[in-house]
Amino acid sequence: DTEVTQTPKHLVMGMTNKKSLKCEQHMGHRAMYWYKQKAKKPPELMFVYSYEKLSINESVPSRFSPECPNSSLLNLHLHALQPEDSALYLCASSPGSSPLHFGNGTRLTVT
Amino acid sequence: KNQVEQSPQSLIILEGKNCTLQCNYTVSPFSNLRWYKQDTGRGPVSLTIMTFSENTKSNGRYTATLDADTKQSSLHITASQLSDSASYICVVRGLNYGGSQGNLIFGKGTKLSVKP
Q1: N or C terminus: fewer CB in 10 A for chain A?
Q2: Is A43 within 8 Å of chain B by CB?
Q3: pLDDT per residue over B53-87, tens digit each?
Q4: Which residues of A touch B39 (CB under 8 A)?
Q5: Is B11 within 8 Å of A74 (Cβ atoms)?
Q6: Which residues of chain A are within 8 Å of residue B42 when distances are taken between CB atoms?
Q7: B89 touches chain A (CB under 8 A)
């Protein structure tokens, strides 16, 4: 089992809904990330948090809003999404330059 | 432009056979290169890391090579098993973006299918 836990595993939401994806790690990693992965494509970086501060935002639309309440938790708040936002959303953590530890993702479907 | 190209795009082999996956990159300056394995519906898992000074590194039945001069890496899988069926992603880290992981360049992956 992965040491990065993501919930829920699957999510179906309408375009007017508000939902949140959650990610948790207890490895003491100070960097946490959100990636978006479409089918048959590599993961695309969305956000990076370093020491609980947002350090990278890869020009992600404002309908995606990240939050890092503490060093172990990372949330991604979703509002007014589009069908093309349907994808696998991966959370990852790392202690620095060491490998990314990925969660198993949330499979999001926007209807 | 920093790019990572993987080949083949997909590969089907019989159980017990060997195979080699290729990764060519243009990322410069170069820091390191990792191979990840991603099972369907799961997150990627790191298999091995190659730094500039390393030519070969093994992890069980997986052996990675790196030629920093030609900017090529390969992942060789020996005596394949059904559980090796997955996507294998080559990820190259450049040196020029500061300390974050924003400087990772992902390849598109090779989808390997091992048949009985």
Answers
A1: N
A2: yes
A3: 889 999 999 999 999 999 999 999 999 999 999 99
A4: none
A5: no
A6: 2, 104-105
A7: yes
Q: Do B102 and A48 touch (CB under 8 A)?
A: yes
Mean pLDDT of A42-49: 92
Mean pLDDT of B84-102: 78
Flag if A99 and B89 touch (Cβ within 8 Å).
Answer: no
> Residue B74 to residues A62, B17, B40, B54, B65: CA-CA distances in angstroms?
39, 17, 22, 13, 5
Q: Which residues, in sequence order, are CB contacts of B102 under 8 Å at separation 6+?
A: A45, A48, A55, A56, A58
Annotate A74-98 with DSSP letters as a single string: EEEEEES--GGG-EEEEEEEESSSS
> In this complex, which of A4, A42, A48 lies closest to B109 when CB atoms are compared?
A42
DSSP character at residue A104: -
